[in-house]
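Task 17 of the worksheet. Students: predict the tertiary structure of the chain below and write it out as structure tokens. Keep your answer in the requested format; marks are given for formatting as well as content.
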Amino acid sequence: MESESNVRGEELEPCGTDPMTGAMRDGYCYPLQRDPGRHEICAVMTEEFLQYSKGQGNDLVTPRPDLDFPGLEPGDHWCVCVPRWMEAESDDRAPPVVLEATSEDVLEDVPLSTLEAHEHDGGDVQSPASSGRSD
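Model answer:
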């Protein structure tokens, strides 16, 4: 990965490693020509977003070993597609965003003020029934 910047103009930080996220499964959310989905927004999964996404035909909960996809739980950090996040935001279902780990390229489509309105505050977003990864 070349040196990439986040939406704050600083060095891009890793999004998540448990589970390992990113289009290249290297923990980072950055643009790749071969990634038409644009997995560039580092989001903290919520039960609401996971169910919303599943309802839109994008099941992020069910593990898919064939795609090196573990299935996600509330609290997991994951690089989500820019168009999917924008769709969720317009439907008031957007998950919190880790700005330090979100690619600056996202600013071509989403204003910084919108991302800041959804900034993850570092608190626990897990559902009361969830106590962490089950695997």
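Marker's comment: Confidence is low (pLDDT under 50) at residues 126-135. The chain has three helices and two strands.
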